[in-house]
Amino acid sequence: MLTECTVVVPTIGRPSLDVLLDALATAPGPRPAELILVDDRPTGAPLTPARPGLPPVRVVRTGGGGPARARNLGWRSARTPWIAFLDDDVVPDADWYERLAADLAGLPADVAGSQGRVHVPLPGDRRPTDWERGTAGLATASWITADLAYRRAALSAVGGFDERFPRAFREDSDLALRILDTGARLVRGQRRITHPVRPTDRWVSVRVQAGNADDVLMRRLHGRDWRRRADAALGRRPQHTAVTAAALAAVGGVAFRRPLAAALAAAGWLAGTAEFAWRRIAPGPRTRAEVTTMVATSAAIPALATWHWLRGVVRHVGVRPWRGLPDLVLFDRDGTLVRDYPYNGDPALVTPVPGAREAVDALRARGVRVGVVSNQSGVARGIITRAQVDACMARLEELLGPFDTVGVCPHGPDDGCECRKPAPGMVEAACAELDVDPARCVVIGDIAADVDAAAAAGATGIMVPTPVTRKDEVAAAAHPAPTLTAAVDDVLGGRW
């Protein structure tokens, strides 16, 4: 079963990664098909994960896109039916491989994901701190990707993780709700990981208030009852709003010379802050350092929580459902990727248009597969041979890098074939070859035949006109782009 599973670990190079890799290397049992480490650091020395006992390891890099983008690159780079996500700060149990295989074996087709069980060790010789208690909540959280395996097809169908969630917060709940909305089920398995409490500084509770903006995004995307569906508590945001309002009223009372109103508002702020601080201090160890930290951060958190919530309200106006990236982008060749020399059979004349290599590489870097679909009627007309076409395609790959699929129609306009664009044959064949839903495919070309072939196959077409493209075709194009670079930018921006 694990031969059908890839383990994906996003990482920012923390020391805990070595602990995770050691656990995976020494654990008994079957190995997955591959371990993909997604290096999400903007810069840094290459990771050196190799050690005996690991499955085949591959490292890919995002350049610092955040956890959602890192996980997306990981699953898009994999080719197995199942993707098992692990965080880089967890430690799998010794039998994790065996239990993962058992958890995934025989799952019904309507089950899209299986969540592992999380253990958070807390100190046995004292009460846990506020940060430790917060981390312990992971043990009962729903659908967190610290250990969660998804069917690759389910991830593809919803576009993967929503990269508008910039931090490791709510992006996993959002994905789970979108997958559940397709009618699929998510289940809990029996495998276990340990999630140690990561060391941090005293201001961590202040920084995490940025997640209030993500809560606004969740509400805009999933409606008012998203918390119930995601099993996410409301927390103290209403109280934080009230305490912040009291603080503003106190400042306003002073500014407008209303001493009594200012005093009452200040008393309200002080009472609310003291109550909040005590709720955090009472269950903790009550050391001098912990009490000092709780008092200082409790004074700052209400205003910051409210600020981030308001920032989210403004930022996420009119937000649309996440579509993600396509699984496959197919390019027309002549006039789109390379300059059009009619019936060209000479590899020396294969000349990429400006920005072609960069555009194709940008898609590869995000894990999007790329291909070429090209009408070559010169073969049917006797002007060029199929061997010349293949030589030109080989030269194209030398210049632009390897393509995941290449389709050529050698027929003429009157041959009545199913492959010549605007017929959908080449697009359908490419999707079938790579096991891609045509709805997750984009075709980029320079004439109506390219976008019409896309539409006939159920894919999306983007037209990049050239000076020889007919004006009526340009006017009729549903999605034109001025250049190849602009077309790919639209794809990477989710505008397809």
UniProtKB/TrEMBL annotation:
Superkingdom to which the source organism belongs: Bacteria
Primary location: cytoplasm
InterPro entries: Glyco_trans_2-like, HAD-like_sf, HAD-SF_hydro_IA, HAD-SF_hydro_IIA, HAD-SF_hydro_IIIA, HAD_sf, Heptose_bisP_phosphatase, Histidinol-phos
GO molecular function: metal ion binding; phosphatase activity
GO biological-process terms attached to the record: carbohydrate metabolic process
Domain (Glycosyltransferase 2-like) ranges: 6-129
Protein location: Cytoplasm
UniProt keyword terms in alphabetical order: Carbohydrate metabolism, Cytoplasm, Hydrolase, Metal-binding
GO cellular component, one term: cytoplasm
Family: Belongs to the GmhB family.
Name of the protein: D,D-heptose 1,7-bisphosphate phosphatase
Source organism (scientific name): Blastococcus aggregatus
